[in-house]
């Protein structure tokens, strides 16, 4: 799997990330660092604990990271969730959280497959 194929699998925008980071090496470096980002775990824990201010912060962080890396599908769902949580809990946050979870799993699976491929 190439980096471009990884982006296709996670429905991202490789050209956007390349334009922002300027080299394949940097795109690869930061995409792989995404695997260790704790924002998603913070989001799911905060939602379970009904700590919506912290959930908003986590969703907003995910949105920012995804925007910088061109992770379009996860960017869109995390952005909608962040807006839904901006002023506290709203009923639409529940289905949006499920959408973020699905998009996150898709993104992580693609990055993990790419990582496995490059590590041999």
Structure description:
The protein is mainly alpha-helical and 120 residues long. Helices cover 79% and strands 0% of the residues. The protein is built from 7 helices and no strands. The chain has helices at residues 3-9, 14-21, 24-34, 39-48, 52-69, 72-85, 93-119. Helix 1 packs antiparallel against helix 7. The longest helix is centred in the C-terminal third of the chain and has 27 residues, at 93-119. The radius of gyration is 14 Å and the shape is elongated.
Report the total helices.
Answer: 7
Order of helices and strands: HHHHHHH
What is the helix fraction of residues, given as a range? over 70%
Mass-distribution shape: elongated
User: Would you identify the regions where 5 or more consecutive residues have pLDDT less than 50?
Assistant: none
> What is the mean pLDDT?
97
Structural class label: mainly alpha
Please outline the major beta sheet. Answer: none
What is the first-to-last residue Cα distance? 11 Å
Could you give the count of β-strands? 0
Q: How much beta, percentage-wise?
A: under 5%
Concise summary:
The protein is mainly alpha-helical.
Feature tags:
single chain, 120 residues, mainly alpha
Write the layout of secondary structure elements.
Blueprint: H1 3-9, H2 14-21, H3 24-34, H4 39-48, H5 52-69, H6 72-85, H7 93-119
Helix pairs in contact: 1-7, 4-5, 5-6, 6-7
């Amino acid at each position: 799997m190439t980096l471009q194929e990884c982006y296709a699998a996670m429905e991202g925008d490789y050209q956007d990330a390349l334009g922002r980071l300027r080299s394949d090496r940097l795109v690869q470096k930061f995409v792989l660092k995404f695997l260790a980002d704790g924002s998603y775990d913070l989001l799911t824990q905060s939602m379970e604990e009904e700590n919506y201010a912290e959930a908003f912060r986590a969703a907003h962080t995910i949105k920012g990271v995804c925007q910088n890396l061109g992770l379009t599908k996860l960017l869109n769902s995390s952005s909608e969730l962040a807006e839904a949580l901006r002023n506290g809990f709203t009923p639409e946050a529940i289905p949006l959280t499920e959408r973020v979870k699905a998009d996150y799993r898709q993104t992580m699976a693609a990055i993990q497959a790419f990582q496995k491929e490059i590590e041999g």
